[in-house]
# Entry
Amino acid sequence: MREVEAHESKLYSDLAPLYDKTFGKIFYSRLRSVIEALDIPRGTRVLEVGAGTGTSFPAYPRHCEVVGIDLAPDMLARAQDKILENEWNHIRVQEMNALDLKFPDNSFDYVMAFHVVTVVPDPVKLVKEAKRVCKPGGKIVVVNHFTSTSPVLGFLTEALDPVTRYLGWSTKLKMKPFIEETRLKIDEVYKLSKLSLHSVLIGTNDKHGRYQ
# Structure
């Protein structure tokens, strides 16, 4: 079966109206806790790649400027509706490829990648672009499921990969190789709960160090 990109799959296009009622409700509480823990300072610029329908948008403080990008126009249309409905003057959305960002270098203080590194065809390139547009010393924040290091769970999740790739995401991404290949300077890695399948990676953008 043909591997599709996320914005081509029915999950990210035809089913966009149902996204908030399913994945949106599940994801929002965890994303809110991550964003609140960052304590984003006043006046900072935030880029969220793969913003989708704007599930995380209510969690951002109004004292920062947020740009959300995605390749799925149906998702972005719903995100824009939320922006207008809630009068979020600090948030805007734009159709754009996370692997080819149309922003100048050093444009943002934070770059967020929520549930997207297993969706794009090249997660290493995504982080490379995130580093480029993130200011020196800025933060790159990844929230995602990574393949378990447990032999049994790892085997089971990887076995599902051909099916999930057809829907638009991969189950084969392992955390340690991902960090090594992206050369991301990791400050903190944590789980949102003991039972959570998702990990939070917070890195500092070291443009002048060995992590580039």
